[in-house]
Amino acid sequence: TSSKILVKGGTVVNADYQQNADVYIEDGIIKLVAPNLKVADDVRIIDAAGKFVMPGGIDPHTHLEMPFMGTESADSFFTGQAAALAGGTTMHIDFALPIDGDLAAGYDIWAKKAKKSCMDYGFHMAVTAWNDKVAKDMEILVKEKGINSFKFFLAYKGYFMVTDGEFLQGLRKCKELGALPLVHAENGDAVAEGQTRIFEQGITGPEGHPLSRPSVLEGEATGRAIKLAHFVNTPLYVVHVMSIDALDEISRARAQGIRVVGEPIASGLALNDSVHWHSDFQAAAKYVMSPPIRPAGHDKALQAALANGVLQLVGTDHCPFTSEQKAAGKHDFRKIPNGLNGIEERMHLVWDLMVNSGKISVKDYVRITSTACAQIYNIYPQKGAVLPGSDADIIILNPNRTTTISAKTHHTTIDTNVYEGWTIKGNIEVTISQGKVVWDNGQLNVEKGAGRYIPMPPFGPLFDGLEKLDAARLRSYNPVDRTIV
Ligand code: URP
Ligand code: ZN
Ligand code: ZN
Ligand code: ZN
């Protein structure tokens, strides 16, 4: 492949500006963005007339080859990223886990797993206990290893869950280090109680999963986490926002000027909980994740909140398991590995749900799939923009081409797809990663080991990047539109 590319005649879209222009790429970097560029003969020209040229997607939330619930998520760093590139995502931030409570050891393991990467990536680190070694490791990870975010679980009692006391210590440490605390917000004690109660009532199938952990428990934990972060005076990022209950807490806090970032995920925007009721175990079990897919109405409210800026960016929580793995919970929903696919589908789903439906502009699409993530994690404008000097991670979307999602044709390794049969107008025909064409009209051309670790620097004492982002969004703040269509 040529290292010099001209993307010609498309509509170049950034989060704040769009223009008809050519994009000239050399050695993995965008060199020029301007109309009618003249280039030498050795430059590969890609015709983008009638198409949108946008920054590659950044998925802020994935779990590749993650040990979880007695098994391991089915996509490796290589297969998961290949799927991502086929779907227009050119960077992701994966959740590294401590090994036996050891964060530094966890980082080393994740760094090793990621050596097979074919696209750029970064890491969050989970904090699942509190002691001096954890605090010291957090400092090392921020100062030396390029990690600027830590996830705290208020659920998964007996595994990852931290107490409020531990969470508070972690929040203070994040503030001291200029790192962003992330929270999985469900009340873990109440979830455990709900699971036992539902199971003992004889509801053992996948439908027991959403029944056992309703949205009120997500709302409670979201509100609690926001208040504790406010008490410490540090920003907070809520991962996988799935419900109106959580949305209400975020919306109220943001209206008061409290710095909270809310991340809905593709499945929460696209699906509703009717999928859990099915006589065939596998047909329902593939949707089991936590927090669960909510009843109809929550999906539309999340879309509306994303459109009006109360929620700022979209992830996937990509954590795929095969039917064989899901079968571990055949007779007990509590043992179904939690997680579903999305890394390959997110860009197309968001286009369909948000742009085709007229809810947002193409610029907003760029913001919520790419730019906001780069800004929040402090890697903008290296990522998240089609600008001179930025990494050449670019997608070309044809708004008139229609495709259908299926496990028969997807690139993730699992045998099912939670979006099976979805037909979507608007297709990402070309993905350019680090200045190389890796996805070209159905042809995937990826290279194991080509992916680079992107270190994410800590924030200044005022969390300046986040502060600016919030200020800009809050200017256009509107109350959540609850329209249920
Ligand atoms: O069900 C899920 N979400 N699995 C991945 C782990 C997590 O909580 O994000
Ligand atoms: Zn989580
Ligand atoms: Zn069916
Ligand atoms: Zn997750």
From TrEMBL:
A molecular function (GO) term: metal ion binding
Cofactors, names only: Zn(2+)
One Pfam family named in its UniProt record: Amidohydro_1
Broad class of enzyme this protein falls into: hydrolase
Signal peptide: none
Reaction(s) catalysed (UniProt annotation): 5,6-dihydrouracil + H2O = 3-(carbamoylamino)propanoate + H(+)
GO biological process: pyrimidine nucleobase catabolic process
Residue ranges of every copy of the Amidohydrolase-related domain listed in the record: 52-438
Keywords: Hydrolase, Metal-binding, Zinc
Modification after translation, per record: Carbamylation allows a single lysine to coordinate two divalent metal cations.
Modification N6-carboxylysine, positions: K151
SUPFAM superfamilies: Composite domain of metallo-dependent hydrolases (SSF51338), Metallo-dependent hydrolases (SSF51556)
InterPro entries linked to this entry: Amidohydro-rel, Hydantoinase/dihydroPyrase, Metal-dep_hydrolase_composite, Metal_Hydrolase, Metallo-dep_Hydrolases_sf
E.C. code: 3.5.2.2
Subunit structure comment from the entry: Homotetramer.
Protein family per UniProt: Belongs to the metallo-dependent hydrolases superfamily. Hydantoinase/dihydropyrimidinase family.
Protein name: dihydropyrimidinase
Species, as recorded: Riccia sorocarpa
Taxonomic lineage of the native organism: Eukaryota, Viridiplantae, Streptophyta, Embryophyta, Marchantiophyta
